[in-house]
Amino acid sequence: MELEGKIIQLNPLQSGEGKNGTWKKQEFIVETKTQYPKKVCITAWGDKIDQFDLKENEDVVVSIDIESREYNGRWYTDVRAWKVEKAGAQQYDTSEPDILPPSNDPPMDEDPPF
Is residue 31 one of the residues assigned to a domain? Predict the structure, then answer.
């Protein structure tokens, strides 16, 4: 799922120790650019924090996973970012073009020279 909007707030980086080792997370608030703007708190975890290079007032497209879980009879919803792109950023294709260079072979409508 994708969400497009502006980062209006970066919350402080949080870190700690868990049973699987050290963890870190950063929450950021994105305001959508719809007729009725919504504010969504999104979490980035681990190495993604540095990879995303988040900045306030930046327009972004965020790819997210949404998951809810139950704990002691209450439900909690987590919105996790797995990809963040700058809105309007041009994507460059570094693969080879589909166009082949011109050939020195004779055109196909001519008879072969042998």
Answer: yes
DSSP characters over the chain = -EEEEEEEEEPPPEEEEETTEEEEEEEEEEEE-SSS--EEEEEEETTHHHHHT--TT-EEEEEEEEEEEEETTEEEEEEEEEEEEETTPPPPP-SPPSPPPPP-SPPTTSPP--
Domain count, the chain: 1
Domain span at residue 9? 2-86
CATH code for the domain of 79: 2.40.50.140
- pTM of full prediction above 0.85: no
Q: Is residue 110 part of a domain?
A: no
How confident is the model over 60-83, as pLDDT tens digits?
999 999 999 999 999 999 999 999
